Amino acid sequence: MTRRPIALATGVALLAEAAGVLLVHVALTAVLGSQRMSLAGLDPDAMIAGTWAMGGVLAAFLALSGVALLVLALRDRAPGRTLRLLLISCAITHGVLGAVTAALVGWGAFAFMMAMLALVVASLILYGPEAGEAPESGPGPEAAEPGAAPA
């Protein structure tokens, strides 16, 4: 099956992206620290702290998503609700950042973000419920009262 290699590739790509995001934010804080400029009266130290915090949070989020996908691929089982929500939020993040990077960075960055979005969504879909399986929520038709008309 192709779901394990796709999940592995997505996990590795997300870990690499997390490292790249962290490096970009380190460079941004170095530039902010050396220029000591104020933006609309904002304290430069607050801008440096905010850049560190945002870079750290985003890198941790991407790394957590990448590690979760690697574990998912190694176990080769469908993800639970929490992991599915994590991956959905990762896909939404890539979609929003893709739209922003198209305007601010360029089409190459947009293509990268859309490729990452496609990998995350493919991992979610491939590890979804198998064809013919009942969904996890709600009682099935066998839970209906005997003699009751089907809805």
Structural class from helices and strands?
mainly alpha
Any low-confidence stretches, pLDDT <50, length ≥5? none
Strand content: under 5%
Query: Helix-strand pattern, N to C?
Result: HHHH
Helix content: over 70%
Count of DSSP H/I helices? 4
Gross morphology is elongated
Radius of gyration: 21 Å
Briefly characterize the structure:
By secondary structure, this protein is an all-alpha fold.
Question: Can you give a write-up of this model?
Answer:
The protein is an all-alpha fold and 151 residues long. Helices cover 72% and strands 0% of the residues. The protein contains 4 helices and no strands. The protein has helices at 3-35, 44-75, 81-104, 107-126. α1 (3-35) runs antiparallel to α4 (107-126). The radius of gyration is 21 Å and the shape is elongated. The chain starts with a helix and ends in a 25-residue tail after the last helix.
Keywords:
mainly alpha
Helices, strands, pairings?
Blueprint: H1 3-35, H2 44-75, H3 81-104, H4 107-126
Helix pairs in contact: 1-2, 1-4, 2-3, 3-4
